[in-house]
């Protein structure tokens, strides 16, 4: 049954009290604080909630979402205070449990919530250990939201939080889906109150980055009321009191946690055959992967009954009760333990069963004979678990459906159509990124990398110095303290972001001064924590105050480099500081390197992504001039790409050979490309519309080129014909879409629109966005499952399971990882045939052999060749709208008309309107996706090939070959999509 769009709101994740709602993992965490307050109010408790922490993927957006939801949180008594770092935030949360000792308290108690990624848990461990040993309040409680990253998607090292939680004596609950965040989160608060222990909530990327249509009426967990008995005041942890508190924590309070898990049914058997012989034990997301593996193999409950399978879900992997583990595995012959990374549960189960008569064989990381069974590398996928299950069940006992699916993996691509390594899309600096400029240095300079956007120098080392190590956050430069006494190298340069400086890096500078080493900190001051959403650093110092602080710490000399030195006229800096233009960066580095002791180069340049957002909001002036390249003059030498290494300076093939073009839609007007020695560059001033105030200001100052100007709006072209209902090409009961794209182009937005449309259509949906560092121009992959029934099991697509491959990025769609989830003869591909250059192609360091047809042929080999659809969506979009951003929505429109999106037109358009962003443009792009062939073609828009016509019928120029050039870095010769008319 469809839902009236008028009854659906983007505020539903926080305001809805029942019915279905589309909610993300991050939103579920924020709603959890409201649910706890509502539960306490219903029980007549006068409590409040407090949230603090430090952002880090996969919880990088928690603070932003908390800030957006403040209009709901404030009236409910939820206080949000971002932490300067994870340790101080944890100390603040621990402080909420001391309210009972304050005479002037206004409430009975406060429930504290801490957030941070697993490395932040390590940093905050001492604060949490003190808080746990001292104990929580009976009506308060403290819960840590721990962002775990076992696949190291956006962390320097992989992580699993179970061992640290065990060390901290912190009970840990592990949700395996978005709705379980709410259920287990409420249990975590109740458990913390009942035991006096901090409780952890393990949130992996596949849960934090997921979203789902959730039936709130089905989420009614039976949460026990807190005890009315008062609890003794927490001890002061000095001397014998610490020993007594620790003993109580390790014995009585952990036993209380085990009893809570038993009474709440957190760890239980979810299915058991009558005569079960094989047990499968898992926790959290791993349990969801087990369910997905069984579904992929076509093994339902009837098959599990015949095979003798028992499923065991441990929602609380620590602390475990030995008696419960023995009871859940009784009468089994073997138990397969499925978990990422360290064999945590496996070891606990073996210890619990040690000495038991007729104990089952326990396998996990290895089989009983020591052979590898489940990998310790990265995150386990459904195909990994499916293969392990097949080995434990035995191939002769598997159902035919399972045998067939295991025997039909995606075929490997033929060698003649293998994509070159250069085509791999990797994260890179945004167009105009200040780190792209500031991190350049001589090749013989010893350089230390660090946490932040500037860490991408590790992916692009050319012209970034001789890199020595990448430390943890806050340790930047301290490695030189240990190296300097043992080398003849005199000087070291350490990159350090301003977010990290305010978080903990300031202590590293103090340590370097104290150690007496000679080094330069290159402090990249862009005034935004760009890796996690562009927040301003907590405790921020402006540049003048920063120079004075550095002088007080003993820094010898400071140089400030900036694109606008005039902005520093009249600004009082410390006497040790001078200001230079950013073009003098090499000279400033040499001067600082010649100075003994610790020096600092502050590169003051605003984050490009934030600059774009501010211009869009009208908070920064838009440069009146644009850079264009006269292609008749351009010789395609690529020098502009060398000097700027900017992703908007793109190589392109034309009828006149290989040229370079400025991609205006992504250009951030940094103008660094003008430094190349090339007569083909022009500065043009497009027609603009100016407000009366702007024109008066321009007239008064006679500087019209620097005034605020808004580009003349282009009329949104409307499709002149009505769309017809498409013929379904996929199963409408359950459809899996895999959508590979490029970070920053709206892949996640499209995923949200499709899930919201499913909600409006009265269907269920679940999505997973695989981003991490990919948001910086790297590969982004979105999986969306649309179903007539609630989506269970892991959302991530596994081998050969995708029904539709919507390739927003041609190179991404043709990558092995994405073709592996396709199935020949089953998966339909709808692909944007335009090639968007990768970082390696733009920086001209390689030659790309072949043509776009090579990528298309790979896609054909893994899908349904006669039913695929290819169109140059980017050229179409730029010709229609003068903007590349609606490209993905246009491709969705093409997929919809091709019968590959099992939703209604009204629902998709209703979801676009609900989103509220660029509504008319996105609606038009969706409709232009695949109009009838008789529709007039505005602006020379090329129509896609449809109705089973092969992509081979698409006329293409033969790719040009590299022309001889002087010795130096090889240049890419990239076949280009048809360019839109200017």
Automatic annotation (TrEMBL):
Alphabetized UniProt keyword annotations: Oxidoreductase, Pyruvate
This protein's name: Indolepyruvate ferredoxin oxidoreductase
Cited InterPro entries: 2-oxoacid:Fd_oxidoreductase, Pyrv/ketoisovalerate_OxRed_cat, Pyrv_Fd/Flavodoxin_OxRdtase_N, Pyrv_flavodox_OxRed_cen, THDP-binding, TPP_enzyme_TPP-bd
GO MF: magnesium ion binding; oxidoreductase activity, acting on the aldehyde or oxo group of donors, iron-sulfur protein as acceptor; thiamine pyrophosphate binding
Biased composition, class Pro residues, residue ranges: 930-941
Domain Pyruvate/ketoisovalerate oxidoreductase catalytic: 743-929
Biased composition (Basic residues): 946-964
Gene3D superfamilies in the record: 3.40.50.970, Pyruvate-ferredoxin oxidoreductase, PFOR, domain III (3.40.920.10)
Residues covered by region (Disordered): 928-982
Species of the source: Streptomyces violaceusniger
PANTHER family for the chain: 2-OXOGLUTARATE OXIDOREDUCTASE SUBUNIT KORB-RELATED, SUBUNIT OF PYRUVATE:FLAVODOXIN OXIDOREDUCTASE
SUPFAM superfamilies from the UniProt entry: Pyruvate-ferredoxin oxidoreductase, PFOR, domain III, Thiamin diphosphate-binding fold (THDP-binding)
Thiamine pyrophosphate enzyme TPP-binding domain span: 450-538
Keyword Oxidoreductase carried by entry: yes
Top-level taxonomic group: Bacteria
Record-level GO BP terms: cellular respiration
């Amino acid at each position: 049954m469809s839902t009236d769009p008028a009854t659906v709101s983007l505020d539903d994740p926080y305001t809805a009290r029942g019915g279905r709602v589309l909610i993300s993992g991050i939103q579920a965490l924020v709603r959890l604080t409201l649910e706890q307050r509502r539960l306490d109010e219903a029980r007549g408790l006068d409590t409040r909630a407090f949230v603090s922490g430090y952002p880090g993927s996969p919880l990088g957006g928690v603070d932003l979402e908390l800030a957006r939801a403040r209009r709901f949180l404030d009236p409910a008594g939820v206080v949000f205070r971002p932490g300067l770092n994870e340790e101080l935030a944890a100390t603040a949360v621990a402080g909420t449990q001391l309210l009972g000792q304050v005479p002037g308290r206004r409430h009975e108690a406060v429930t504290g919530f801490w957030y941070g990624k697993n490395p932040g848990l390590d940093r905050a461990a001492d604060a949490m250990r003190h808080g746990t040993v001292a104990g929580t309040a009976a009506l308060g409680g403290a819960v840590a939201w721990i962002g775990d990253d076992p696949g190291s998607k956006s962390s320097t090292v992989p992580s699993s939080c179970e061992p640290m939680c065990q060390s901290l004596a912190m009970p840990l609950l592990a949700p395996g889906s978005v709705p379980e965040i709410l259920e287990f989160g409420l249990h975590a608060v109740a458990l913390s109150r009942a035991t006096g222990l901090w409780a952890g909530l393990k949130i992996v990327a596949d849960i934090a980055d997921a979203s789902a249509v959730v039936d709130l009426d089905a989420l009614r967990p039976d949460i026990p009321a807190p005890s009315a008995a008062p609890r003794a005041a927490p001890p002061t942890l000095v001397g014998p009191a610490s020993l007594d508190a620790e003993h109580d924590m390790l014995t009585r309070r952990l036993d209380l946690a085990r009893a809570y898990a038993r009474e709440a049914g957190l760890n239980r058997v979810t299915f058991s055959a009558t005569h079960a012989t094989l047990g499968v034990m898992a926790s959290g997301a791993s349990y969801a992967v087990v369910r997905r593996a069984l579904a992929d193999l076509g093994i339902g409950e009837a098959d599990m009954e015949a095979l003798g399978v028992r499923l065991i879900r441990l929602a609380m992997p620590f602390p475990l009760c030995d008696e419960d583990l023995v009871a859940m595995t009784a009468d089994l012959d073997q138990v397969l333990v499925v978990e990422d990374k360290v064999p945590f549960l496996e070891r606990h189960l073996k210890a619990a069963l040690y000495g038991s008569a007729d104990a089952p064989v326990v396998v996990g990381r290895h089989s009983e004979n020591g052979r590898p069974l489940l990998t310790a590398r990265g995150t386990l996928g459904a195909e990994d678990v499916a293969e392990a299950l097949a080995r434990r069940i035995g191939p002769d006992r598997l159902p035919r459906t399972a045998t067939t699916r295991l025997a039909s993996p995606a075929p490997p691509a033929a060698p003649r159509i293998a994509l070159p390594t250069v085509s791999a899309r990797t994260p890179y600096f945004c167009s105009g990124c200040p780190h792209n400029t500031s991190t350049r240095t001589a090749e013989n300079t010893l350089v230390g990398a660090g946490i932040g956007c500037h860490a991408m120098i590790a992916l692009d080392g050319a012209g970034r110095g001789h890199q020595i190590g990448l430390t943890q956050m806050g340790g930047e430069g301290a490695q030189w303290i240990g190296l300097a006494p043992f080398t003849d190298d005199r000087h070291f340069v350490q990159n350090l972001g301003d977010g990290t400086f305010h978080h903990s890096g300031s202590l590293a500078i103090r340590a370097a001064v104290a150690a007496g080493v000679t080094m330069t900190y290159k402090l990249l001051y862009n005034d935004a924590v760009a890796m996690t959403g562009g927040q301003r650093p907590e405790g921020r110092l402006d540049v003048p105050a920063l120079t004075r602080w550095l002088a007080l710490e003993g820094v010898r000399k400071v140089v400030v480099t900036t694109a606008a030195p005039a902005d520093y006229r009249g600004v009082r800096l410390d006497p040790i500081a001078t200001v230079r233009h950013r073009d003098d960066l090499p000279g400033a580095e040499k001067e600082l390197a010649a100075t003994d002791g610790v020096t600092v180069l502050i590169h003051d340049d605003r984050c490009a992504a934030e600059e774009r957002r501010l211009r869009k909001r009208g908070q920064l002036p838009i440069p009146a001039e644009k850079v264009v390249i006269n292609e008749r003059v351009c010789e395609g030498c690529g020098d502009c790409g060398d000097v700027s290494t900017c992703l908007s300076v793109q190589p392109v093939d034309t009828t006149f050979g290989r040229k370079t073009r400025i991609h205006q839609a992504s250009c951030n007007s940094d103008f660094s490309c003008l430094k190349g020695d090339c007569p083909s560059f022009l500065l043009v001033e497009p027609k603009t519309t100016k407000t009366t105030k702007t024109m008066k200001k321009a007239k008064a100052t006679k500087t019209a080129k620097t005034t605020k100007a808004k580009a003349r709006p282009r009329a949104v072209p409307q499709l002149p014909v009505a769309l017809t209902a498409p013929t379904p090409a996929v199963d409408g009961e359950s459809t899996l879409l895999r959508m590979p794209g490029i970070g920053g182009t709206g892949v996640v937005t499209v995923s949200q629109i499709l899930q919201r449309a499913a909600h409006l259509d009265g269907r269920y949906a679940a999505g997973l966005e695989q981003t991490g560092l990919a948001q910086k121009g790297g590969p982004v992959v979105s999986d969306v499952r649309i179903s007539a029934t609630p989506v269970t099991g892991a959302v991530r697509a596994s081998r050969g399971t995708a029904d539709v491959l919507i390739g927003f990025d041609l190179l991404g769609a043709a990558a092995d990882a994405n073709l592996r989830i396709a199935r020949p003869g089953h998966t339909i591909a709808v692909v944007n045939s335009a090639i968007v250059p990768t970082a390696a192609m733009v920086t001209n360091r390689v030659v790309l052999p072949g043509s776009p047809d090579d990528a298309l042929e790979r896609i054909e080999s893994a899908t349904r060749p006669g039913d695929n659809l290819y169109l140059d969506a980017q050229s179409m979009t730029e010709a229609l709208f003068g903007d590349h951003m609606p490209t993905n929505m246009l491709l969705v429109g093409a997929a919809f008309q091709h019968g590959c999106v099992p939703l209604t037109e009204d629902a998709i358009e209703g979801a676009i309107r609900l989103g509220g962003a660029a509504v008319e443009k996105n609606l038009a792009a969706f409709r232009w996706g695949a109009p009838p062939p008789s529709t007039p073609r505005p602006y020379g828009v090329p129509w896609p090939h449809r109705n089973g016509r092969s992509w081979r019928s698409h006329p293409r120029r033969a790719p040009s070959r590299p022309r001889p050039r002087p010795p130096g870095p090889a240049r890419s010769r990239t076949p280009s999509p048809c360019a839109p008319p200017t």
